[in-house]
Structures are given as structure tokens and as C-alpha cells.
């Protein structure tokens, strides 16, 4: 499938992070905002090989007016190809598919003889559109113009990079799924010669879909889009099951067997027969089986499904971030929550860089479902024996306002003794609600003050916050002046004097 590019919200095409070209001129815009407002590229996809095939080309001489190659190759740190992308403006904003960057902490981007390494904070993920934006520097590739028209009409001829530049034709708009998201996509007719490149992991994901007449980008290639969730009737499900069984009968194409087993395992009627093989392929790192494919079996077969997740997280094909997000989003019962918490603690311990992602997923669930019965056992399970980086990341999330967060924060503070975690609470509390800020600053001061190391850390944190958080020094100075007895055992004399200087107020010695 393909993903249409940002639609215009006026006569000017919206472009990522500033001004950029469009089909018939230039116009300002912010693609991240446009995407979130529902005006982003819509996934365009390649359908199965069809008889309505258009011509298959040898490499085209040029798709850009300058003759330069506009494609940016995306690799992981080990050099494995993940997909393609292209610059959407002159500021270095790379547009690609979400599947090309998902789960990577760093991306290696290559354009011609130039290379750039992008870190996770340079990536804006838009999984609800199967898109991602990446800030880049120095790639030198020419930006491609984004089409300003609302729709790509059926019959439009396009060019895509699938092994080489190939011509295809737009068939129709269709609804597909990417993970848990429903996405509107354009289905393309293309010959069998490009089929391998258009499979998941084949290298075409994220490439531009170019209008053959104007050269403007109509969409972004997506290879991980699925139609299975739209099988709403028994006839639909039977058709899919028959296709999966046909694949399993084809011994010459074993690479697709894992996906076929996974599809059959989603149906309770055929799950018992096919789940074990689906789990084996998943645990072995089959790129065609994403975590979402196995989640329907999590409730009926929790132990084998969680065991497969554990193996995938530990193995050489580890996709920790993706697997963790899926587990956190789909655990819905207290019993599953306790099991998932154990697995997540094990996964984060050797990979502390994933702690922030776990905390962000918890943050989203707390924001969306304040009283979900699985949340408390899940979060408390993570706090109970979780590694220090995970507890610190969760502390930052739990310090935000809201009843369930405050109850969970109380659980953390009742048992927490690690200075780094308490320091995270202190920094997260500064600058928020003033009453809550006072209470948490005082409480963390008492907890940290139980050891010389903790007391020193607390004093340093107060000075740091006084220098960098607007109004914090003044509020602390007022608190020290109004209730000196409450703070005598918490704030040291030199810290009091520093706060006095920073606030410009007299603090009792």
C-alpha cells in the first residue's frame, strides 16, 4: 500500500518544518502539524501482483529536474536496510514511512556519498498514518515537491522505487490497518518484477510515489499495511483462511508460512492448531509477524504468547521498543498485567534506553483511561522491582496532575530509596502546581536527607532548579521565610543563601 502525502489545507501545499516546494510553486507549512490535523500523506500500497500491470521500467535516467538522485537510503546501525525516504523541504526534513524507522534508536541515512546519523529525538513518529519525519543535515539530496491536490484519481500513472524505478497505476482508495490504526491508502497495480522489494523488509518502504506527469509526490510506499482487520463477515474470514492455507501448502515459499500461521492463529477456531508455529516464527524474528498479530491469543494463551515475547526481546532480532509498546497498549486484565510487568522489567534491565518508551506508553494509558483495572497492577508491578532507570522515568510521568497518577506516586514514594529516582520526582514537580510543588519538594527533601549523599544531591537540585525554572527560586525563598522550622532539616545553609541571591529576597539563616 502507499501513503498519500500531506494534503493542502488551502491553495498552498503544507510542507514539513518550514517552506518547501510543491507541484506548482512553494508554500509554507508544518508537516507534523498537518499530519496530526488529518492532512498527512495517506498510506499508499501495492496490491498483490495483478494482471492490470503497467510497464516495468529499467532505472529511469532522472526523477528530479537537476538529474540528482532524490532517494535517501535508511539503515540501522548494523548496516541492514530498513527502507527509503526523501527530503520534503530545503531544511532537511526527511519524509518516510513509520515502518522504516520503528524501534530504532539511531538511523543511518545515506544519500549518494553522504551519510548522516539521526538519533531518536530527531524523529517525529506518526504511526496513525504509517509516516515519520526525520530532521537531517548535510545529505545534499534535492527535495521533492509534494502534490497540492486532494486526491490521486484512479488511473493516475505513478512511479515508485521498488528495486529500480517502476511505473504503476492507481487503482482506488481503500482502508487498511497499520498496527492498531486504520489508514486510508491508495492501492497500486504493479508487475510481479517488483514484488520482492515491496514485501515487508524488501527495502521499498518509505519511498516516494511520484505522479508520472508532474513529478510531484502523491504518497509514501507502505509495505506493512494489512487488510485482515476488515474481514468482518464469516465469508471474509473464510476467504482469508483459505488464502493462508494455500500459502502453507506451497512448500516452495516457506518465507510466508509464519505469516500464514499467524493469521490463522487470530481465529479462535483455528488458533489451537496454528498458534505454536506462529509463536515459533515470531520468536525467531520473522519480519512478517508483528507483535499485534499475536495479541488476540494473549488472553486465551497468555503463557506461551508472553514466552514468545520474552524470547523475541532477548534474541538477535530484538525489536524491544515495538514489542514493549504493543504489550503496554494491549494488556487489559489484572492477571495479564502482573505477568506483563515481570516481562517488561526483564526487558528493560539489559536495555535501559527503552525505559523512556515504556514510561511514555504508561503516560498515554493514564491519560486515556484513568480507572482501567489493569493499570494499577501493571504500574505497581513495574515499580516493585523495576530497574532504576525505569522507576525514574515512571516517576516523571506519575508526578503530573491526576488522581490515578497521584495514588501511584504515593506507592512509589512509600517504598523508594534510590536518590536518582527521588531526584526525578523533584525535577518533574518543579514548575507545576505550586501547592503540589511545595509538598513534593519538601517530601523528597526529607527522603533524600536520610543519607549524606542524598542531602547533597537535594541541595544541588534546588540550586539547579532555582537557576533554570522560572519563579522557582522566589517561591522557595518565600517558603523558607514563611515556615523556616519546616525547612530547617531539609535545606542546608549554603543552599539557602544561594536561593536568596537567585530570588533577590532575604532568607532566614
Please report the first level of CATH classification, the CATH class of the largest domain.
Mainly Beta
The biggest beta sheet reads: 7 strands, mixed
Low-pLDDT regions: 4-43, 45-64
Helical content (DSSP H or I, runs of 4+): 40-55%
Task: Throw out a few tags for this protein.
Thrombin, subunit H; Serine Threonine Protein Phosphatase 5, Tetratricopeptide repeat; 509 residues; alpha+beta; 3 domains; 7-stranded mixed β-sheet
Short account of what is shown:
The protein contains 17 helices and 16 strands. It has 509 residues and is an alpha+beta fold. The strands form three sheets. A seven-stranded mixed beta sheet has the order 1-16-15-12-13-14-4, with no helix packed on it.
Account of the 3D structure:
This protein is an alpha+beta fold and 509 residues long. The protein has three domains: 228 residues, Thrombin, subunit H (Beta Barrel); 67 residues, no CATH class; 206 residues, Serine Threonine Protein Phosphatase 5, Tetratricopeptide repeat (Alpha Horseshoe). It contains 17 helices and 16 strands. The protein has a seven-stranded mixed beta sheet, with no helix packed on it. Strand 6 and strand 7 form a beta hairpin. Helix 3 crosses helix 4 and helix 4 packs parallel to helix 5.
